[in-house]
Amino acid sequence: MNTSSHTPNIHSGDEKAEPQVGKIWLAIISVIVFLGVVEVIGHYWFLGVKDKEFVNQQVLRKAPEMVSMQTRDAQLLNEYKLLDPAIGKIRIPIREAMLLLVTQPNSIKSKLQSQNLQIQEGKK
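User: That's the sequence. What structure does it adopt?
Assistant: Structure tokens below.
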């Protein structure tokens, strides 16, 4: 019988694994890129929310004078009104006036010329 003293090594049979540096660096870089993308998206989202708040607070809020002026302007541009019954002068909506000017240009020009008015024609 062989009685030689042989003490077993507790690490015998274990293979030492090489650290996988490539995978570690890939994971670190992936986390950094992910955090960067999240930061950029969050930053632009936050700016978008702040811009919308600014528009709602500043631009869309109208002074009462502005509202009344816009209402008066809309009435002037969109209503019929008898201005001078003696000569038959009336105000017509701007859209109808433009349509008449396009469909009956000679008639409108002759009426204006008879009243010593001129149409300013655009230069081409």
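The longest strand covers residues 81-84.
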